[in-house]
Amino acid sequence: MIFYFSGTGNTRWAAEHLAAATGERLLFIPEELKGDCRYTLAAGERIGFCFPTHGWQPPRIVRQFIRRLFLRGQGSMVKGQGLMDKGQLSAQACSLDPSSPRPQDASTPRRTLRSAQRDAPHLESSHYCYALTTCGDSIGRTMEILNKELAAVGLKASSVFSLTMPESYVCLPFMKTDKPERECEKIAVATRELEQYTDLIVRRVPDVTHTHRGLTPWTFSHVIGAYFNARMITDKPFTVDADRCIHCGQCAKACPTGDVTMKPSQDGAVLPQWHHDGSCTNCLACYHHCPCHAINYGRITRQRGQYYFGHGNSYN
Asked: Could you report the per-residue pLDDT of 125-167, keeping only the tens digit for each?
């Protein structure tokens, strides 16, 4: 099964591609959080986590989901919150942290994408686990942070990947959407990389790390990212220009967590309203899907562009 979260569609595109190639279930994390987050794995079913990088960390909603996750496999039992294979987690399907050695052989280096494709025609494990994140540039220590969350529920991913996709976060002074030619360039490269990743995932190749962490991953994740995730994951700065809004409701439809509702204002016009209940992930789906640029996040987005995957059917 593939657990995924997506706001502007980049991760959804990758997750749907993986689901089609593996034939496995595709589960949307915001919808799954409405249930008990308990699942039974089919024999040999893979466990995938796909999500965008938010502030050089996994999105808060993904971390919340992992903390509630219970898995049961055929011939397995659940102990605590982790998947236990007859009471013991298989070490064969471990090692998300690229700085840690494989449990079986501390001297074995983690494989590069190219060597993994060359050396492993077909590898099996009971429940192969992997993670893929999309980002506009770099991911910092996103996968190490994810690893800690997974370890707390008895899981680790055997291979981790990142895809550099068109930028969608525009609420910091140095962040803007890509120009159209750069969008196309990023998607073309990501398409090729996704095909390579898919081949490895289908064949259950372990110990592959193909990510772009950036020049200063610790600073991005634990300084800038820590501030971002502590202070900027909020819907309070969102506003709507009533004179530009056409009351189409696209913002509410696009919101992955249902944080936007169309309601009559004091003058009777039906406008988007944000719930201010902590459900916002700051993915900016409402902003990017507004056809009239009537929605803004404070003042900074008034002069910024908009993007969502497949806008204008450019990439479909």
From this structure: 479 999 999 999 999 999 999 989 999 999 998 899 999 999 9
pLDDT digits (tens, 9 = 90+) for 94-106: 333 333 333 333 3
Amino acid letter for position 146: L
State phi, psi for 292 to the nearest 5 degrees: -120, 10
Q: Which domains are delineated in the chain? A: 2-228 (3.40.50), 235-311 (3.30.70.20)
